Structure prediction request, 477 residues.
Amino acid sequence: MSEAVTRSVITSTPGLLASLEPLLREWLPRQRWFAGKGRPVTGFSLVEATELLPVPTLSSVPEQAGAPTGRLGLYHLLVRAHQPLAPVQGAPSHPGDCYQLLIGVREALPPRLAPALIGHVHEGPLAGCTVYEALYDPRPAEMILEALRARARVGGLRFDRREDIRSDLVPRLVTAEQSNSSVVYGDTFILKLLRRVVPGVNPDLELPLALARQGCPRVPAPAAWMTAEVTGESYVLGVLQPFVQGASDGWELALRELAKGEDFTAEARALGRATAEVHTALARALPTVTLGHAQMRSLVDGMKERLEAAAQAVPALRPYAPALHSAFTALGDLAAEGQTWTAQRIHGDLHLGQCLRSASGEWSLIDFEGEPAKPLAERRMAQPVVRDVAGMLRSFDYAAHSAGGAPAPEWAEACRAAYCAGYAEVSGRDPRTDPVLLRAYETDKAVYEVLYEARNRPDWLPVPLSAVRRLAASDPT
Prediction:
């Protein structure tokens, strides 16, 4: 490990955040992974700052064209962004989401780093410097890998690993839009750096580790991870996993096959088997619970509340609300009659984009973080496996409406049936044999999609509304 990293300490540089704040106010909301879009940032507070490389001393000689741009300084920051609860002036304040930032500091940026620019600092301890998103720069990415290899301790930062890591892996930033940031190291590993972080046990590390102990091949086993200890609380910051070379993203693969008019049912069936393998391994690795009347009443009440809120916000949903409400009532009635269900740890946000098919045709499931907008405790709750199944069934429906041509409901229905059949081949139970539970979870997911699309992508609203019409017309009882 480099001497610079081993000698780094928590910085107490006064005014550090104040010098960055004007730039972060502009830059942070533009990032794909910023969760508070649509609400102004009213301020920042510093949770933790670690100086990984000392800030460069500014040159007294003007830089010549083509000359080196000076030494690199590097900060790791945990910063809380404060925003009002609603996008209006005077709305109640939100305690603020905590974001992980890796800030590079140079006198000037070389042209290759132009897309990484955050801005030029005019006041405070970084006055005269240029700051930028450091993951675009290979050297900081190399430092993270070296810290993981060395199981380093840098201030409150903790780097751990469960297997050996080569030191000659060349990093490259994945520039595709995503809710976190990823760096690939030599086509051998991929580092997922979490951006919005919360204290506690993150399922994106917890569940893959549990599956690795079970020998489950459907989820890449964590090779290393990065955490922070701050005032007695632990934050998971990043996970290094094997990079699946030549893998196809399930969403992109489905769209390509659909656009070509190719059958996708064999892949859907294989994906159903892979999902069931993961669920079976999770049930072995972690406790399961039985959901009786009281637990199901709480679950059903939550579904009804989400429907009522969405119907208030989206007028197009209102004509279907009574029929959709009946899907939840039917589930509550079964629970009141004494039926119970098994709940366990699940993926929590399963869709085609969370699946990879290797060049050999094997499917893997990734990104076990769950729905990031939900509280961590809720994401770690045991739930019926049908929730994951419903998410995948809705994903087939989205693909059928997104391939560029006319919607293909028959394609989606064939994939849905094949997925459930594949799931049954491994689990011994077809999700369709519990139609009331499946309908309730599909309905809950479609209601969520209606609200999301109405707020973020109005042009996509017809996709979940088509599912709403189908679900409102169905009566599995």
